[in-house]
Amino acid sequence: MEQYIILKQYNLIKINPSPEIWLKSMKVRMRMVKTLTDNIKQRLNSLAIPFHKYQLSKDSTRIFFFFDNEDIRKAIKTLEKIFGIDSFSPTLRTSNNLKNIIQRTLEVCEDILFKNDTFAIRVKRSGKHDYTSQDVAIKVGQAVLDNFSNLNLKVDLSNPIKRIFIEIRGEFSYIFTDIIKSKWEGLPIERNKKVCCMDIGRLNDLLAGFLLMRRGCAIYPILFKLIDDNNISEKWINNWREIIEYMPPIKFTLRIINPLPILRKICDNIPEKKYLCALCRVLRFEIISKVLKELQIEEFQRIKAITDGISLNNLTICSDIVDLNSISVNYIFSEYPIFTPLIGLDAEEIKCIASKISNNLNILDYCVFKPQNQEIHGERVIEIYKSLKLQNLISEALKNMEEINIT
After folding, report:
1. pLDDT at 142
2. What phi-psi label fits residue 188: left (phi over 0), alpha (psi between -120 and 50 degrees) or beta?
């Protein structure tokens, strides 16, 4: 439910980039602010949400997008899903003249203050002015009390019912009543930070890719179909539709590989069934390695890392010990770093991340084999894997790779 007010006077949204951006060097900081601005602009354009113009403050710590009032609510829904934002506020802009600030603040107060309300004026100021922040707060607050004496208002600086924010930056002032915090903050997605997202249908794999997006990476998924069920496949694709809501508008392709014939051969030809999960893992990373190195897929050029959704919470079919030991076989075929961003999160934290992304994410019955009591012994797994001679089957799986474009 919306917890903010959009007043008829508002004609812009003031955006505060993530504080993490300001820890970077000046060069990196300016690049990220530009990327964030471009991502916002492109996302608004892709959703046909019109804006008049956009500006940076002189110190580049604020981004301003100007809208018709009726388009602000739609823009807010979009900003909630863009990484690199700390907070934003629907706002009106006026000059830095104190009389103008008082007059425009009174216009806002006329719409939000009611009988017996308590209120506080919060003022921030940047630049050179012939008044202090405290001067503004005192004079505006007194003007509110004088102009609305019939409402029996009281000032409460500790726990007010209503807050009015005034941010004075250089020659302009910005007046607003809400600070809408981002769920994610993080860094803006940069298209040259490419990561391959390995997904076997576990919600964890999807979340691992999402958390790398939050760190400014553009993800390119490779899906491994471990169960032959069209209903599950459609739910799987719908999960990815929820994720692309957080991406800059680019052509987005799901590449789906069917390793079931290979896994059935493995299952039929190994006496030690306890190694099936480990062998499946080695197979997947060999296939990804071949996709990245041998297939001339334009989007995959310059990918520098892979994500993996393993965790230590017994949330997947395999046990905790297998999840931990499985890291030892990750690098048999991969020359890239393999990120496991969920490995330090408990079950409740992972559930919380999923619910913040969307309430429409599906938990899938993703594996037809459902192996139990799995183990990993690195040297033995490699020995078995090499003895199976799977190259022809791998080539066939790559040849039959399916591509699905979603928007």
Report:
1. 97
2. beta
